[in-house]
Amino acid sequence: MDLEERIDRLESIEQIRQLVARYALCIDTRDLEGLVGLFVDDVSVGRFGTGRAALAESFRQGLEPLGLTILLVGTHVIDLVDTQHASGEVYCTGEIDRDGELLRQAILYRDTYRRDDQIWHFVRRTHLLWYSAPMGVDPRHLPPADWPRGHVGRGTLPEAFPTYREFHGIEGSEKEI
After folding, report:
1. Lowest model confidence (mean pLDDT) among 24-33, 62-71, 100-109, 167-176
2. Which of 3, 95, 127, 139 has CA 20 to 30 A from 107's CA?
3. What whole-number distance in Å separates Cα of residue 152 and Cα of residue 142?
4. Are residue 53 and residue 95 in the same domain, yes or no?
5. Which domain covers residue 97, as residue numbers?
6. Is the pLDDT of residue 175 over 70?
7. 38 CB-near residues (< 8 Å, 6+ apart)
8. pTM here?
9. In this structure, are 109 and 30 located in the same domain?
10. What span, in angstroms and rounded, lies between the C-alpha atoms of 91 and 51?
């Protein structure tokens, strides 16, 4: 490989890593517009059809029963197939409020990526689960921590994200980020 090919390879790997990180942030903040923009225009969404509008509806339905989500991505192996295609596997742990119960999940995402107009997107993202289990102490029911003065208790997230409030129909928050 010449220097230009090596640089392109490194830039591709970093762009794919950022794609995965942005996915987690968009899920947690309920930024559906940002989320569907991470996928190819012609994304296949099973029973919902194809395209980003179908994907947005799929995500809306999937996220609707969830409250707080915190996705933390870790191990990420990326295999570049060629200059326009790649695959990857991503480890993720999540804290997820489902039906009022806080769950801890260990997730593996199996991804397919494609580069269109020099930008990497998801073609497909398969969510595989190692486990999902209830957590011990539910921090959502603690009194406010009043960070940084207090260290134990409820924080201001996710309600401080404007996209999260809009998604759930929550009126403004005194502290926004």
Report:
1. 167-176
2. 139
3. 8
4. yes
5. 3-137
6. no
7. 19, 22, 23, 26, 121, 122
8. 0.86
9. yes
10. 26
Only one residue has tokens 């269109």, namely 116
Residues 61 and 116 in one domain: yes
Domain with residue 15: its CATH number is 3.10.450.50
Same domain, 75 and 117: yes
| Residues 73 and 24 sit within 8 Å (Cβ to Cβ) | yes
Provide the mean pLDDT of the chain. 92
Q: Match 């539910």 to its residue by tokens.
A: 138
pLDDT of residue 151 exceeding 80, the answer is: no
pLDDT of residue 176 exceeding 60: no
Residue 150 structure tokens = 């207090």
Q: Is the pLDDT of residue 58 over 70?
A: yes
Token look-up 């995965």 returns: 20
Q: How far apart are CA 40 and CA 52, in angstroms?
A: 8
Return the DSSP state at 20: H
Give the burial class of 90: count Cβ atoms within 10 A of its Cβ; 0-12 exposed, 13-18 middle, 19 or more buried: buried
